[in-house]
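Quick check before the chapter quiz. The format below is the same one you will see on the exam, so make sure you can read both the input and the output lines.
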Amino acid sequence: MLASEPYPVRRAKGRLAAFGWTLTVLAVAAAAYDVLGARQVALFGVGLAIGAVLLHTEFGFTGSLRRFVAGRDPEALRAPLALLALTTLALAPALAAGEAFGQSLGPASAPLAVQVAAGAFIFGVGMQLGGGCGSGTLFGLGGGNGRMLIVIAFFCLGSFLASLHMGWWAALPALAPVVLGERLGWPLAAGGQAALIGLLWWWLGRARAGSGPRFFAQAQRPNSRRLWLAVLALPLLNLATLILAGHPWTITWAYALWGAKAAVALGWDPSSAPFWQGAFQSAALRDGILADVTSLMNIGLVLGATGAALAAGRWSVRIDLHPGALIAAVAGGLLMGYGARIGFGCTIGALLSGIASTSLHGWLWFAAVLPGTWIGARLRPGFGL
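Here is the expected output.
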């Protein structure tokens, strides 16, 4: 909406947009109920809430990691660390129980593998060029950032391409998944991990910020009060996801699925790819999008962010059309998609939910994304970002 428009016109357009948003949400909820019933509708509602929280708080790992690694700002990592600790404590009782309301519950775990480290590194480069991580691209799109549509399209392509190479990556050195909660017991593992994260959080609060390198343009820090709203709300929403879906919050599997469905529509034969012959993958390809939990929650996240932007009176369509930004969107999307698929997730599915599940692969992913973030931040000025 243009600021130069008369107030009655802006208000009328705002009401029309809100009405359209409401109809869309109701239509998706009705379709989700028709597919799998009330549980699927509840997961859609969790996605809506996550999108609203992310849009309102502007919480994201992309900017925080860039300020920490490239801007040498220790304060930037404190909110993400607090989120990790609180999510660990929120998920642990449910994971220890292993079941809730007839739904079996399991952690987000993956092997300690070369492909995890490689995927995280590639993803770190890509998210700095794309301007958002898995969740950041979705709530950015919901808020009206048209560039994110390009990022997401190539994110899907990169994820699909990586799925065709999974056999090669899986042949690289790897150790079996290690979930500390299952090895040490959930009280000790979750409590000990949260305590160690708390010590790191305290130490970073005492550390002094250094001067960032010349290639790094200091970004404005998000509002601290809003950040802490995200830190408190997201663990509860992740717990709701775990109880309803049987696994913690994830984002990027849906991108691989969307890419594969697009390829099938263009004539690709899934039988040519071993990855897509798995029972879960082939069923997801066969079923509709709304039958897939991650896809439904991603749609909810976008709509939740749109609703929050409309409620705040700041929704508007915008896109950066200069060539550098568009090239970076394409490259960033491809790199994030490829990295997320081979690395078993993004800053949400691998880093947040992985670490909160006390899976050591989450910490490996965290360590490997940092150098990728540094390189990505260094490349940004070359694209005019």
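If your answer matched, good. The chain has one domain: 7-209+221-383.
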